[in-house]
Amino acid sequence: MTISGVSGKTSYIGTTIVNLRNQLNDLTTQLATGKVSTTYAGQGLDRGFALSLRAQISSINAFSDTATNLNTRLSVANLTLQGLSDINAQVKNAATTATLTLNDSGQTSGQITAQAAFANAVSMLNSQSGDRYLFSGRAMDTPATVSADTMLYGTATQAGLTQLIKERKQADQGTNGMGRLTVSSPPAPTTVTSVAEDGSAFGLKLLSVQSSLTGATVTQPTGTPKSASVDLGPVNPNDGDKIKFNFTLPDGTTEAIELTATTTNPPPGGSFLIGANSAATSANLQTTLTASIKTLSDTSLVAASAIAASNNFFNPVATISGAAVNNRNTPPAPITGATALSGAPGTDSLSASFAAGDTITVNGTQITFVASGATGNQLNITDSVQTLMAKIDQISGTKNASTISNGAITLHGADGADLSISSSNAAALGALGIANNTTANPAPLRVGGPPFDTASNLVAGTPANTVYWYTGENGPGSARGTAVAQVDQSISVQYGARANEQSFRYLLQNVAAYAAVTANASNPNASQQVTALAQRISANLAPQNGQQQIQDVQAEFAGAQTATKAATDRQTQLKGMAETMLDSVEGVNQDEVATKILALQTSLQASYQTTSMLYQTTLLKYLPIG
């Protein structure tokens, strides 16, 4: 007879216990983690759905991080924009209310305010968020501008704004201090008073003449360069008759000199004495007009000159300058605005003529030459050089009209834009002093000199001799497009900025001009100079129609923030839904798991007791005693 041990009989109990313990371990892990399984395999058939939900949540988290960074940058940028807007208001108020008392540096309290405001504005435009410069376009690791001191005062080798303002003042006032104008009378008749420009790009420009002088004949400004005249004729004007000369100043503003005929001797301010005859009266008119032009040149012209110089400094312009060229006259003379674009030998025409069918291409736009009847972007071959320059200016969109002086042409592009010119007739283009296929890049403009008081045109500064104030990226496309953030699967937000955008640049150039100008306290016209400057600064810092405002940039940034918030709010809802669905796949019911654990613990306890009893059973318990 064979007697077997209990181990073989109870092996199935041990297997059951192991299974129960594994189940208990799984349930304990579920209770601790709140998850069905710590592996995707343990999630069953829904594991693919869980994976997609996790990817969606991860994507939303990434967008949330982007939105956080974006909102931080936009908040810093908005603080800068608000600060710049406050500076605009502060300087405008200072220009309006400051006293005219000059300090030892020749500046008013308003100008001292402008100096501090300018330094603050430059610092703001170099704002950073983390390691990113916010107003440098795509050059996020480069400061947007040079320092305020460098802009104003330059370096050892580069001219800053203050130097350019001084050079421009000399050029605009001219050698005689009359704004590049001359007042004269021909040998006969002596009753004529003539006012003429000198043909340069600088100084006062004749706009019109208005007269109520009895018996006088007025010739409006005509010719190249322009001149106007007043012929009193044989009869004296009456007491109280007036004549007004209107001028355009370098910054585009206009000023007038109005003179009244009087019999009072000495004549009061703004009047000229009626003499014994019209010739004597004409001489008195010339003397008074000369003195009035000098006063205008030393007051409003000084202010307008500073504004123009600041505009040329802060608004880089492409410049193509032609070499001096002679016409076909015998003997040859320098070409002028009146020189014809084609003509026979011995005439005032280009040395190489344009012919019908020839073209000049300016920034990709063609000008076509025709024999006659030109329309649109056409020119007659008999038109003048001045007509051609006007057409080129129209196409380029420049604010700085092309000039010609001593046979040399100077063409300017639009603010911040390249300028290119080419022609199918290279010889004729060369007769204008311009090489074929020429392209120029934007650069700050300054007076071509020295000497400056006799300079004829503006030339492009170079990095070697002139400060280039903007150091950020200046590529094609909008400034906003230089920084893009993806805040949703189908939504991207543009939030880039460049410090040379119109609104920032315009603020800088006006505040800088106000801060840079100094007046000589011993000059009797000093108060009028700073008054004229302050008036222009105040007017310029007011909102300008058709011009970008700082508030426009703020609105665009606000739109970016609104779009980001809307996307973030929507993603928050989607994330909540996705987490709920994921929890239904991966999560467990804690109460149910706890109940199962208790049941398993009870089963295990029973199994342990049964197994223990079985293992305590021996043969001796079944053998008889005795």
From TrEMBL:
Organism domain of life: Bacteria
MF terms in GO: structural molecule activity
Record organism: Bradyrhizobium ivorense
Comp. bias (Low complexity): 182-192
SUPFAM superfamilies membership: Phase 1 flagellin (SSF64518)
Protein name: Flagellin N-terminal domain-containing protein
Residue ranges, annotated region (Disordered): 172-192
Cellular compartments per GO CC: bacterial-type flagellum
